[in-house]
Design brief:
By secondary structure, the protein is of the alpha/beta class. Helices cover 49% and strands 16% of the residues. It is built from 18 helices and 12 strands. The structure holds NADPH dihydro-nicotinamide-adenine-dinucleotide phosphate and (2Z)-2-iminopentanedioic acid.
Amino acid sequence: MGYIDEVLELVAKQNPDQKEFQQAVKEVLQSLRPVIEENEESYRREALLEKMVTPERIIMFRVPWLDDNGNMQINTGYRVQFNGAIGPYKGGLRFHPSVNLSIMKFLSFEQCFKNSLTGLPMGGAKGGSDFDPKGKSDREILRFCQSFMTELVKYIGPDTDVPAGDIGVGAREIGYMYGQYRRIRGAYEGGALTGKGLTYGGSLGRTQATGYGLLYLTKELLKANGQDIAGKTVAVSGAGNVAIYAIEKATTMGAKVVTCSDSTGWIYDPEGIDVELLKDVKEVRRVRLDAYAAARPSAQYKEGRGVWSVKCDVALPCSTQNELLLDDAKMLVANGCIAVCEGANMPTTLDATHYLQENGVLFCPGKAANAGGVACSGLEMSQNSQRLNWSVEEVDEKLQTIMVNIFKNLDQAAKDYGMAGNYVAGANIAGFKKLAEAMIAQASF
Ligand code: NDP
Ligand code: 2IT
């Protein structure tokens, strides 16, 4: 048995119930075959792959908090510090009832390669809780965030581990957590969290960065394949931070976005999504998507899922893992879709990914396509260290450069290993090579 298959077997044996983690490891390792084969002896000697699939540290803790009725509630908190070889651990916090160890490990494993691809010195981590923010009052969110940070504070800091937002964690939650961090530490250490508000050390452009970055990369991918984003019909899933700013940038670039979704249903708006209305529904009023259709005559709201049944040229999944399934991929191909770029982390299942690739759809994986968010977090850390604020133009220019470079690197890596056009392999190889070199150089850990 080859080294990769041995390690995949080990991962399955050691993590039998962690299907998302197994899925993420499989996607990465399977596409690394040519790189592993050319270095198999030295990688085996270093146990490189075994190290790479084993988190450096997992922190799990109890999060007690008082609800508005004075009752004690208990959730579980997590921080998985997966790999610190190329910089302080870095990655978001997710608050969603589906959070478990498998999801935390898959996200932090992916983050290692994503952060490597940005070219910035950041290791990989992820954290969060099974806390469900839906239906909670603002004060309940505050008490939860304070309790969560009271424990997490022991393990993070500007040079050790720097959390940020993800599903269910945006500017409000980061503000509450940063306030508690500062109170306990007794020091202003802005670089300990990113995605902060602009009045206390946040970076211009961070809110938009993941969605905008997704479009910068998509544009570059289309350009390299003789296509233009302008004039394309785009299907987006999700209606949160990533989706909203992906829709905004796609529209600015001259594309028409005709769908978005949340966990209750989805919108089809053939006139093009009105992003200001969407922001009002989701960022200001924080209500369900049916409120969008109620305010917009051209839009239809449908319960359940369905965005991938709409005819589109480009599909941008921006909600959550495993939301684009094989049957969805079949509908996209039948409808003439030419490109799928992942705004979310691992939104496409492995069989759907293979189907899209086999049918000539340009496919860019999340670890490259959504890297703009964490890249901008890296820029926020730099600004915090310098005690300077860059202009929005400066940040956006750096973000564009990073996204274009990511595409060039993964395109080249795929070509170097005889897999031109396979951007999954390209992203994994490019991210892996830098990480492998850093780990081997620091042999002791
Ligand atoms: P938000 O919480 O802002 O939005 C998430 C959106 O996805 C909401 O519309 C939500 O609907 C929907 N959604 C979430 N979970 C589910 C589910 N289980 N079933 C159906 N719909 C769901 O999160 P973000 O926009 O920040 O994150 C979206 C994705 O992008 C995630 O995969 C995240 O990991 C990834 N990502 C985020 C980055 C960032 O900077 N924020 C950076 C890189 C990747 P509802 O509100 O109804 O729950
Ligand atoms: O998945 C991701 O890259 C994020 N949620 C952003 C992480 C960050 O540290 O900005």
